Amino acid sequence: MGCAGSTPKVDENSKKLKKPKAWKHTQPITPAQLKQMRDEFWDTAPHYGGQKEIWDALKVAAESDLALAQTIVDSAGIIVSNPDMTLCYDERGAKYELPKYVLSEPTNLIHDG
User: Fold this and answer.
1) What is the torsional sign of CA 22, 26, 29, 35?
2) pLDDT digit string (tens) for 30-41?
3) Is the pLDDT of residue 6 over 70?
4) CATH number at residue 57
5) How far apart (Å, rounded) are the C-alpha atoms in residues 68 and 48?
6) Cα distance between residue 19 and residue 85, in whole Å
7) How far apart are the first and last CA of the chain?
8) CB 1 within 8 A of CB 81
């Protein structure tokens, strides 16, 4: 005998994640410059509010493929407002805004060589 509430259900607040739309940086940048921008964002993001654990989960999700990212945000109770993860909330209503440069590469990324 099982409990009716024991079967997994899809949270009505959860959206299926999608790849971010293509974007272009204001000027061509190298992978090293993109990495530096990302590192600076993740180092300072918790200072804008919200929970460090949610920021950590968002970072891992941003660096993962879509299937794993979906599992991470679902497990952490993150409410995805925009399917590309640019706007999320935690269960307490704290807002988490992610710039596109932490979610995907720009179309004008300069590859050395």
Assistant:
1) negative
2) 999 999 999 999
3) no
4) 1.20.225.20
5) 26
6) 9
7) 63
8) no
Q: What angle do CA 67, 25, 100 make, to 5 degrees?
A: 30
* pLDDT, tens digit, 9 for 90 and up, residues 97-112: 999 999 999 999 998 6
Q: How far apart are CA 20 and CA 87, in angstroms?
A: 12
DSSP E strand stretches across 18-94: 79-80, 87-89
Nearest to 79 by CA among 112, 45, 50, 44: 50
Cβ atoms 23, 104 nearer than 8 A: yes
Per-residue confidence (pLDDT) for residue 22, from 0 to 100: 87
In total, how many domains does the chain have?
A: 1
pLDDT of the residue at 15: 76
Residue range 3-23: mean pLDDT, rounded: 64
Q: Show the domain range for 48.
A: 24-100
